[in-house]
Amino acid sequence: MKFFLDTANLGQIAEAASWGILDGVTTNPTLVSREDEPFEVLIKKICETVPGPVSVESVATKAEDIIPEARELARLADNVVVKVPINIEGLKAIKVLAQEGIPVNTTLIFNPMQALMAAKAGARYVSPFVGRLDDIGHDGMELVDQIVTIFNNYGFETEVIVASIRHPLHVIEAALMGADIATIPFGAFEKLVQHPLTDIGMEKFLKDWEKVNR
Ligand code: G3P
User: Fold this and answer.
1) For residue range 194-210, what is the model confidence (pLDDT) as tens digits?
2) Does the global pTM surpass 0.90?
């Protein structure tokens, strides 16, 4: 299972990269709007810091505009993946970009058919947004389960990125379902490795170590 960081913050990315388990980064317009650096400079720096794919979102709405914008984004660095929202215009763009070898992460996926359509068009990744579904009283992880089953049924190579993650349980369920990737905000990422019994255990061991005749 791959772990991506869902952020555009260079400090968070460098910190998570230092843990040795970071496989990639996903950004979106909201995340980049929180950073001060000029957009292209920021993306190039992120791409240099991350040892893996970096998703950068296209903001055009017509296929004829998404395609040239995606080509420009892909020129920023070798590891750029272009995020394209799912809709008819997005599908048209994905088809062309896939034929050109530009990897696409299809974003804003909220039902399994959107994921299947994106995979058929040639998307490299699909991003179901689980937290936003949970927020409106739906079961976000059920969507992931459906997409993983459908892709396995037909042998699609499109990878499933579980996105809009809110807490570690989303990541555990994603792993149990066999999702390829979880893209995780920094706060939830830190929690994956924390446990109060680990802290209590360490404290006791360190205290007892003081009593050892050395
Ligand atoms: O990057 C896409 C997705 O992970 C956004 O999550 O928290 O804005 O629903 P959120």
Assistant:
1) 999 999 999 999 999 99
2) yes
Phi–psi pair at 124, nearest 5 degrees: -75, -35
CA-nearest residue for atom 9, ligand 1, is: 164
Ligand 1 atom with least separation from CA of 131: 9
**CATH architecture, range 2-209:** Alpha-Beta Barrel (3.20)
For the stretch 50-79, pLDDT in tens is 989 999 999 999 999 999 999 999 999 999
Where are the domains positioned within the chain? 2-209
Q: Measured from the CB, is residue 27 less than 6 Å from ligand 1?
A: no
207 assigned to active site = no
Max CA distance (Å), the chain = 75
* Helix and strand counts by DSSP (H, E) for the chain: 11, 8
DSSP string for residues in 156-193: --PEEEEBS--SHHHHHHHHHHT-SEEEE-HHHHHHTT
Nearest CA to ligand 1 atom 5: 164
